[in-house]
Amino acid sequence: MKILIVSYMIPEAPSGVSVHYMNLAKSLERAGHQVQTLSVADAQPIIRKTSTAASKILSLFGGLGKELARESQNFIRIYTAVRQLIRKKDFDIINAQDLGSAYAAKLASNGRIPVLLTCHFNDDPATETIKRRNLTGLAVTFTQKWHQHLFKAITYYNGVSSYVIKRSRHLFNIDAIVEIIHNGVDFKAVQRTSPLSVLHSQYPGKYVLMNIGHLEKRKNQDLFLEAAYYLKKQRSDFVCAMVGNGEDYAYLQDQIQKRDLADCVVMLGHHEDVIPVLKSADIYMHTALNENCPLVLLEAIASSVPVFALAVGGIPELLKQKEALFSQGITAEFLADKLSAALDDEQFRAKLQHLQYDDGLKGFDIYRMTHKYLAYYQRIIRHFEEQKISGNATLKTTDANEISTHKPVPNN
Prior knowledge:
By secondary structure, the protein is α/β, with parallel strands linked by helices. The chain has helices at about 15-30, 45-60, 60-85, 100-110, 125-130, 140-155, 160-170, 185-190, 200, 220-235, 250-260, 275-280, 295-300, 315-320, 330-345, 345-365, 365-390; strands at about 1-5, 35-40, 95, 115-120, 155-160, 175-180, 205-210, 240-245, 265-270, 285, 305-310, 325. The strands form two sheets. It has a six-stranded parallel β-sheet, sandwiched between helices. Strands 9-8-7-10-11-12 form a six-stranded parallel β-sheet, with helices on both faces.
């Protein structure tokens, strides 16, 4: 099979999306298929320069102009890059990693190649964009209308969690075909990776509690810091390691100083490969307020680290153990107590890690994920060919009782 994977996100981006599609590409190649990845960085230099110049001009026209600039720049780059590539090579299917690249690829191929959209967003991407960029007025209207158009233009979807499909299904084309394929991790490769020894050498005899993610409000690292504050009142045999960069970096550094946590909290910045860092942890604590299918949780599980997280979004689909999940409204003091109890109970941590590892290996290994993608690709290709004759489509899902085309899906 010849597969083209497209994304606005470049492979080097510090994102679970880029890690996902690069891992998928490698796994598909290992399975004997021809795979090519393409991102905005693959557009011709003249296109990149022209789209950048056009975006700068559009940005001069207020909030709406800035949104048009953001959307058009990536869209043009993917559209032209795909169009140029498919003139030289044939592909059986295009797997897009975001809405814009899916529509750009569909237009660039003149609808001759089926396009699958992998849903990495958390809920409604238009609402998320509006909140994240603090949009108002015409910029809000444009963003909503644009996303509505994008959703209606796509026929094939896969959600990396059941949660994301439940939350966004009402946005899809009525003829959409849907599948659930969770993220996957190469458990064997993770086990072969050596841990980063610097943390234990710098903090000998101390437990390492870790949090990884883009430093932003949604990831809620402030809760991790506040829990460290209360944990410090109880004990001194630990260090909290924060991995990642982002807009909240300076704010979090300031909070470390204000809470007098410099001796027990370390910021490690961005690591392109988080597995060696994860393997040096004794506990992984995920504090995000909303998630779809966070790849880092699966990476932590594959690294044989016991994982705790807030029970939000698609996380309960990954963590079946109730003792590993906390409510979104948990206080930092209560969280500190739970983490302290886990540090004191080595048998509990070992049992939790063993259960999570077994569940992860059975349900979220990359080879299982790849097999599901290939089966879905084949199903899409067959349907696409049938559509040329019949012109009809029927919504099909992995769980018709759970995700219905006729019943509205509740938002809570």
